[in-house]
Design the sequence.
């Protein structure tokens, strides 16, 4: 049994939900959203809540049970209160401004980066280094935030770029080495240590590093 799917989705005041031909429609103060309910589950509206149930015990039905319930919850919450994502801009001269229906970004390039604002999403800049993205559709809000972030993702050394407000950027050479190791590539630091060790062992056999030069026997001293 799905721990998420078994919980009914409460319909708040000011929101109207209708079901017609497997299409669930929610209307609220922030707009109207629709969802096509898959054939593996059934949706029922009763007692001020939407209940999702699987049609059978198949793996596909059990998988879509919790997924459909989450989508319905996001849809009802979106038309009632909406969703918001916050972006922060770090860098000297980096800034953003809303000009009409276009978000203009200055991200260290030789040119400005214009981003047309979608009609179903609202973008505000309370200050030049902060971007607020809001809307009723959670997927669209997240997608727009990801697209804006992709113009200049935060770099690993000083953290310059566009990042989510709750995102933690690991800065410094260690973070770069960790990403290379995670991607299956060799770490530059380990490569340097290996080269240094090989050179020291070639010049002074048995020595760990050039600083640990073995003392010469007394018979060979002049």
Sequence:
């Amino acid at each position: 049994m799905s721990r998420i799917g078994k919980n009914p989705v409460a319909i708040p005041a000011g929101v109207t939900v209708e079901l017609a031909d497997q299409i669930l429609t929610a209307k609220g103060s922030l707009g109207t959203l629709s969802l096509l309910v898959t054939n593996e589950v059934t949706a029922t509206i009763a007692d001020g809540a939407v209940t999702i149930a699987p049609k059978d015990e198949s793996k596909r039905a059990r998988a879509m049970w919790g997924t459909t319930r989450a989508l319905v919850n996001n849809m009802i919450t979106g038309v009632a209160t909406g969703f918001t994502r916050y972006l922060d801009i770090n860098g000297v001269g980096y800034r953003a401004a809303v000009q009409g229906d276009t978000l203009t970004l200055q991200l260290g390039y030789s040119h400005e980066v214009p981003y047309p604002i979608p009609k179903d999403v609202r973008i505000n800049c309370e200050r030049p280094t902060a971007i607020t993205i809001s809307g009723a559709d959670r997927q669209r809000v997240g997608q727009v935030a990801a697209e804006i972030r992709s113009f200049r993702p935060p770099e690993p050394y000083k953290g310059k770029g566009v990042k989510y407000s709750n995102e933690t950027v690991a800065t410094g050479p260690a973070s770069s080495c960790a990403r290379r190791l995670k991607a299956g590539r060799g770490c530059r630091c380990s490569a340097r240590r290996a080269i240094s060790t090989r050179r020291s062992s070639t010049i002074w056999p048995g020595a760990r590093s050039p600083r640990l030069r073995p003392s010469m026997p007394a018979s060979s001293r002049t």
